[in-house]
C-alpha cells in the first residue's frame, strides 16, 4: 500500500528566511525583500506584528489584494549587539494557519578590518606560532 501526500502552505514565501550575512554597521542601511503569495488556504490578509529588535524595520507592500505581497526588511541600526537574530511574525488571516514566522539573521563586522583578518587572533595552545602571509 502506498500513500501520497501534499503539504499545504497558507503562505508561500521566497526566501523562507533572511540572512544578511556579514554587514558593516557604518553603512546607511541594508535591505532584503521576501516575496509572499497566497498558499493553499485561500486568500490572505497579512498583518505584521510589532518588531521588538532595535535597528530592524519591515513593511508589507500589497501587489495584488489577497494574492501577492512584498515584505521589505531593512537593517538601519543602531544595533545592540554584534549579531542580529530575530523572527518577524505575520498574521495570515487564514484559519488553518493564522501565523507564520520569518527568521532574520546578520553579523556585524568592523568595516576597517579586511575580511581575511576577521577571524585572525593571537596564536592559541602550547607552542603555537603565528604565521602571517
Overview of this structure, please?
- This protein is mainly beta and 133 residues long.
- It has a single domain (11-110), classed as Sandwich (Immunoglobulin-like).
- The chain is built from no helices and eight strands.
- The strands form two sheets. The protein has a four-stranded antiparallel beta sheet, with no helix packed on it. A four-stranded mixed beta sheet has the order 2-8-7-4, with no helix packed on it.
- It is elongated and about 55 Å long.
- It starts with 10 loop residues before the first strand and ends in a 25-residue tail after the last strand.
Distance between the termini: 62 Å
E-strand count: 8
Q: Globular, elongated, flat, extended or rod-shaped: what is the shape?
A: elongated
CATH superfamily: Immunoglobulins
What is the helix/strand order? EEEEEEEE
Q: How many domains, as an integer?
A: 1
CATH C-level category = Mainly Beta
Any guess at the CATH architecture?
Answer: Sandwich
Examine the coordinates and then state which fold CATH places here, giving the name of the CATH topology: Immunoglobulin-like
Beta fraction of the residues? 35-45%
Structural class based on helices, strands and sheet pairing: mainly beta
Amino acid at each position: 500500500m502506498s500513500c501520497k501526500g501534499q503539504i499545504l502552505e497558507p503562505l508561500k514565501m521566497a526566501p523562507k528566511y533572511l540572512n544578511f550575512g556579514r554587514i558593516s554597521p557604518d553603512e546607511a542601511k541594508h535591505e532584503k525583500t521576501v516575496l509572499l503569495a497566497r498558499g493553499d488556504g485561500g486568500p490572505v490578509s497579512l498583518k505584521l506584528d510589532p518588531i521588538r529588535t532595535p535597528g530592524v524595520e519591515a513593511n508589507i507592500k500589497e501587489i495584488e489584494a489577497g494574492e501577492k505581497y512584498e515584505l521589505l526588511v531593512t537593517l538601519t541600526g543602531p544595533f545592540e549587539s554584534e549579531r542580529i537574530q530575530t523572527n518577524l511574525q505575520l498574521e495570515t488571516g487564514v484559519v488553518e494557519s493564522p501565523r507564520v514566522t520569518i527568521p532574520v539573521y546578520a553579523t556585524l563586522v568592523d568595516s576597517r578590518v579586511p575580511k581575511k583578518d576577521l577571524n585572525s587572533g593571537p596564536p592559541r595552545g602550547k607552542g603555537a606560532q603565528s604565521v602571517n602571509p
